[in-house]
Amino acid sequence: MRKYVIMGVQGSGKGTQATLLARDLDLVHINVGDIFRWHVQNHTKLGAQVRRTMRAGELVDDELAGSVVRRRLDEHDWNFGFVIDGFPRNATQAEFFLESFDIDGVIHLDLPDDEVRRRVLARRLCSQCGMDYNLIAHRPRNEGRCDVCGGQLVSREDDTEHALAARLRDYHAKTNPVLDLFRRKEFVFTVDARPDKHTVQKAIRQRLDLPPYQEPAESG
Ligand code: AMP
Known about the structure:
The protein is 45% helix and 16% strand. The protein is an alpha/beta fold. It is globular.
């Protein structure tokens, strides 16, 4: 059983790295932001509660975030473990987490703010099928159109300069204390998030003493 938390500022590649790790090691990838987005898109009661907060790039309240995580982990579909992405984001959430679940490590992806800004403002999402693009690293073949379904590419609602500035402020003010808290328990493995995704994944595997990562042959 392997239980990890992956942390890093928006655009640090948390989702990508968690996906690569989960795929090879049969872990369940739990993305708290995606769970909230699902609720907003499906117009659930919870979605209505969090929509405005999310749009402003602010954190939803801790109790709500904690209960979403608990409900997800209570499904117990993670026989080989999980990698949780987007939680905990402040000291209260970290305390809840440490009381409720024992974890094997916190993967901390380290990325400077100016690189965050460059990456996040280049993110695009297909409005029809949800496929992710990035105008720096993964451009669509036809500008503004999805390669898969031809749908229109849009920015995520909260990927604006204004929302990003709020998220960076929040991140530094609230998440750094979380890292300090975990560091006191020697849980934190910091990895440089600036290189390409394969290099970062290799570094994560090394740091966590996991089976080595096999880079796909077709990757460039
Ligand atoms: P993300 O995709 O991780 O950027 O999350 C999108 C939005 O979901 C955030 O801007 C918050 O509004 C909300 N959210 C995600 N995770 C949390 C969390 N741990 N605590 C509070 N709000 C969260």
